[in-house]
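Final report, closing paragraph on structural work. Over the funding period we assembled a curated collection of sequence-structure pairs, and we close with a single example.
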Amino acid sequence: MKTIDDLEAELGGLRGRRVLVRSDLNVPLDHSGATPRITDDGRVRASVPTLRRLLDAGARVVVVAHLGRPKGVPEAKYSLAPVHARLAELLAPSAVAFCPETVGPRAAQAVADLADGELVLLENLRFAAGETSKDDAERGAFADELAALADAYVSDGFGAVHRRHASVYDVATRLPHAAGGLVATEVEVLRRLTTSPERPYAVVLGGSKVSDKLGVIDNLLGSLLTRGDRLLVGGGMVFTFLAAEGHEVGRSLLEADQLDRVRGYIEAAAAKGVELVLPTDVVAATEFSADADHDVVAADAIPADRLGLDIGPASSAAFAAALADARTVFWNGPMGVFEMEPYSHGTRAVAQALVDGGSFSVVGGGDSAAAVRTLGFTDEQFGHISTGGGASLEFLEGRQLPGLDVLES
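Its predicted structure, as stored:
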């Protein structure tokens, strides 16, 4: 993949050039107050180095991104206006404008008004149906409109590179292009996880559903993990593992249609010599609420009227011990409902184990990244915090990612 340095050389410099940057600004918003509030600005902060690099080179920077999942029409709750405010703070004193249109006359004028070293953020890409369309012609037409705004394209939204969207794939076929610093770093880290990781290699998987992680587990047990490596499973997905072992899981989250597949994973791990670490105790509550009655119970004796919402203290200690001497760790998915304090301790224990250990630790985006920040950890305490949960998982599955493949051309 070409870098921004390569693009600068190809164009004979970036000063005065209009550079369209596909960033990932898909941040969580709290709409409970008078104005929307960003609850985790990690992706915005991660986008800054590439934008700063271009601004310092005198480029006229046009940023496009998505937020949420609008259905191809404008929806006020998905506006990027709150993100613009934070981006302007982070890029000060550079001029950072906002255009409430993605393409069209107002967007064209906003770009025309830019001076060297200035930036405009355009409104949510997904307000246009062409961005995510599965129809090549419709998607291509939207890509044409985006490409007309720029002289070159930089892909820096790693969280979207697994999507064949107009701003991720099609625009790159229409303009001189390069990978931004964030995308380059993400690819370098993930290749380190999949080509020559230092061992023991430990993978921690959590989150709600086994079905979200099927491809990753297949690839982990098929090729990535070897004898002596470890697979730790927590979060809501663990109850399908416990049920596959024949245990009562009460009202806990259960994917009954995955039981046979999970039994296969358990057998495959044993046959390959991969240590499968499951919780021995869980925090089980009467309701999905921070105020509900809850107790620590054995993982093989969850009461029928309760649901598990976190791994228990003995399991937290066992997980930490299993991570203590690991040299490489990939973690995707919290161990419990970390947003509620009574069920945050398992996730905190895993994060602390990574901070205390000597491993190269990668936190795989999404809820995991939000969890460590919510619990008071900083990005610098880990080897790498990915900005792309879904993209990271698909990379680890061994799948081709359209947004990366197009950058190779």
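The chain is about 35% helix and 15% strand. The CA atoms of residues 186 and 386 lie 7 Å apart. We thank the funder for supporting this effort.
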